[in-house]
């Protein structure tokens, strides 16, 4: 109101009260003038009212703008050409945890980590000189020294008459950045894993397959996986199983897992472990499916090997029991045949020699059974052996029996280190494999290839758990024969299994090979496909020793007079031992049980020079008897005999003080030589 009064007084001063124009006005003119003035007054009042409303709206708009400005989700900063903060909203203050009075006029670079200051100055210049906005990321520091990642969007502001400046919109993207890094890490894991990982929409159409999945499926690089479905990767029966079981179960329970089979683009079928996961949104609707597929081919091979080992162990236990009894029978047969030949020079030896010949064949058969069943208990004479000359010898021997239509090739590493082996058993293995190869080649045509090489194997990369890290001499025997199907391959090491016609084989061949290889701390592997031939690989651990010379002991049988205690639960066998030993001058006391033998020894331990005892006896075993005898007299000489035992090995026997460990049936001459050698060594 004061302003209006002042304006009125200023107007009155400008009007001359003696103006003739006013004097000449009529009453009517005055009335019209008053009317115009009143209208003009009303117009002015209306204009004033409109101005007040506009001013109020401007104030409201400004207040609303400031409210929005300060409550914006991002920090708004006004920065001058020197990088100083001219203005900041409340969100910006909260972002830096600072007071307005402490931030205005300070350089924004003070709120950056040292490594990013120069980067900020670079972008600062780019914004001031550029015509468009610029977005960049920096790591910032709050007033309380806490760090955060920020996204900065700079926009230049050029107002007439004012110095250059720009506005920065700053957002805290720490969580977003961490989420992005996590996604990148997860993506890296998914892409670097060896498992097939894929995602499909609710209709089963693939959206994504990782590189391992593409490799597993043998996809070409340009294959568009989005044009395929989940069930396209499986043989038809498996695809039906997944549609009818896998997917419904995953929808019901969230996840479904089973062993299935996938089929590659080239038709190869691979056994896999597969997981289906159904992902649902917040209202329970299916969003997508994911699947993880792992190749379990090697696992299946190991499971097959384990089942094979368990089966062989079970059969071996049974075979061992038979071998024990059979060896006792053979010992009696061969022993008495030798005794008759020794005592009766006038007897025609022809019939007895035939008995001995048949007995030795039976003895060898039992040894083959033991080599298969429990090779760790089979006593063998192992020395350092060079494989090249041994292989050449077998090939030379068999070349004469092989038809000329079969080509034999060889590639032998003559510098291969020796192996600790029983040369006779290695000879047996090679003859077996070479003959099998010949019989696998129809019409006696094909190629037999023999390779000897030395390899260093890493246990962490070997599919066969029986092999340890180290150097191995590897003999590979390959034929171009008819090959084997998976069913036959699973049984080739079973005893008495054969694919030959009746009368053409015992079926013990490969089972014996398997046992011998395990006895040599090695293993045998086989690869074969029907119509593609077969490859057997023999792995022998190498040694640094030089081959020992093979010695034959042709020493004549010597007589003796020492006192021997013979213990065996087989009465016929103890009678034979007594007759044989007495015939060569020894004094003999026999006993058919371990407990009775211990009582005899306790009465007068010094009367005996040596004890020969069987291992498997009722009541007191040979091992227990030996321990008791050694407690009574530590220097007593003991020979432990066994037809088969899973309770004590040669190494264990020698460790408790037993002087000699022998397998039945024992050769007559070998027994006398061993006996004499021990007695003379006292």
Q: How would you sum up this structure, described in words?
A:
This protein is α+β, with helices and mostly antiparallel strands and 682 residues long. It has 20 helices and 22 strands. The strands form 5 sheets. Strands 2-1-5-4-3 form a 5-stranded antiparallel beta sheet, sandwiched between helices. α10 (297-343) crosses α16 (571-583), α12 (387-399) packs across α13 (423-440) and α13 (423-440) packs antiparallel against α15. The protein is elongated and about 190 Å long. The protein starts with a helix and ends with a helix. 26% of the residues are buried. The model is unreliable at 501-507 and 548-554 (pLDDT under 50).
Which features characterize this protein?
682 residues, alpha+beta, 5-stranded antiparallel beta sheet, 22 strands
Outline of the structure:
This protein is an alpha+beta fold and 682 residues long. Helix 11 crosses helix 15, helix 12 (387-399) crosses helix 13 (423-440) and helix 13 (423-440) packs antiparallel against helix 15. It is elongated, with a radius of gyration of 51 Å.
Q: Mind sketching the topology for me?
A:
Blueprint (H helix, E strand, L loop, with lengths): L1 H12 L6 H4 L3 H45 L3 E6 L4 E4 L1 H7 L3 H4 L13 H13 L4 E8 L5 E11 L7 E8 L1 H19 L3 E6 L4 E4 L1 H6 L19 H18 L1 E9 L5 E12 L5 E10 L1 H47 L5 H25 L9 E3 L1 H13 L6 E7 L6 E3 L1 H18 L5 E12 L12 E10 L6 H4 L19 H11 L3 E6 L5 E8 L21 E5 L3 H13 L3 E5 L2 H10 L6 E5 L7 H11 L4 E6 L7 H6 L4 E4 L4 H13 L2
